[in-house]
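Box 4.2: Ligand-aware structure prediction
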Amino acid sequence: MAKKSWTKKELKEFRKVILEKRVGAQEAIERSKELTDNIVETGDVTNAVYSSHMADAGSDQQDREKAYYWLGRERKFLQYLNRALDMIDDGTFGICKTCSGLIGKERLMEVPHTSTCYECKSKDH
Ligand SMILES: [Zn+2]
């Protein structure tokens, strides 16, 4: 008989992993913020030395785009982690909404907020 719910111990483990991931995401957001702030603040300086540092100015632009990209990505990830924590609280975490089976642990570690198991997700495509 297939297991239809997580034990309290398992949920506690998931919560711990998600909280750890969340700390990591928050740190990454802070770092990206610092990076984007620095780029904005030094914008004038970059212009002042533009003529002698043409190549650097180009890579600054790339760094900024990269920093904003990462910032957006980490923010989204943080939202997903918060959603996963909500799901643990309301008892829907790690349970497939299509087949009501438990979602594989490996998949949950990758995408904690998922509400579809690998098999059902595959059928969708
Ligand atoms: Zn399923």
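In the box above, the bound molecule is zinc ion. Residues 4 and 117 are 13 Å apart (CA to CA).
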